[in-house]
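Input record, target 12 of the design panel.
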């Protein structure tokens, strides 16, 4: 029940936040993932308890750094499954770009679509939905 309440609150927060205007400068820096939940914005995206468990082990306490040269660096947490940690290395040294209109961060060239993050920012928190996944991640600026 507590997870359901948390999920509901995070979903409401992402959908209804009076978020700060997303700018390049507001994204720069290092962010640590403090919470991993699922969203239900697209019911066609598969979701399972096992997948959410793996996502939590992979992302919780991992960091993403968006540097001023527009490179992204990901540091996995020590509990991340080896296969997922290796897969996440694909994000390292990738260029990132911001689509302010759509609140999207593109990883790699937008035409390549390595990954897209739907982003909302409020204070020191960054709420991220990874495109084509059921994942809703809450990051804190560090």
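The sequence produced for target 12 reads:
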């Amino acid at each position: 029940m507590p997870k359901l309440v948390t999920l509901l609150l995070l979903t409401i927060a992402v959908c209804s936040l009076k978020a700060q205007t997303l700018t390049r400068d507001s994204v720069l820096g290092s962010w640590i993932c403090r919470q991993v939940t699922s969203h239900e914005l697209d019911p066609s995206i598969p979701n399972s308890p096992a997948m959410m468990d793996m996502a939590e082990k992979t992302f919780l306490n991992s960091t993403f750094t968006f540097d001023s040269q527009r490179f992204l660096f990901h540091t996995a947490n020590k509990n991340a499954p080896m296969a997922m940690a290796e897969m996440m290395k694909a994000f390292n040294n990738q260029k990132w770009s911001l689509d302010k209109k759509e609140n999207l961060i593109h990883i790699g060239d937008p035409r390549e679509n390595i990954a897209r993050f739907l982003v909302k920012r409020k204070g020191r928190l960054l709420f991220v939905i990874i495109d084509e996944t059921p994942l809703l991640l809450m990051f804190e600026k560090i």
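Confidence is low (pLDDT under 50) at residues 1-18.
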